[in-house]
Design goal:
mainly alpha, 2 helices, rod-shaped
Length: 50
């Protein structure tokens, strides 16, 4: 792999990592409302810990 190819590959990888990070953050923010309150059952509490 020459220098230009490696730079392009690294740039593509960085773009994919940034995209994945943004997707995970968006998922965590939007799924926050899905978490049960403190009165949830045992299964809900177990899922919350995961």
């Amino acid at each position: 792999m020459n220098r230009d190819t490696r730079a392009a590959w690294l740039s593509d990888c960085q773009g994919l990592i940034d995209h994945a990070y943004d997707a995970v953050v968006k998922l965590l923010i939007t799924s926050d409302w899905m978490m049960p309150d403190e009165t949830g059952d045992r299964r809900s509490r177990k899922l919350t810990r995961v």
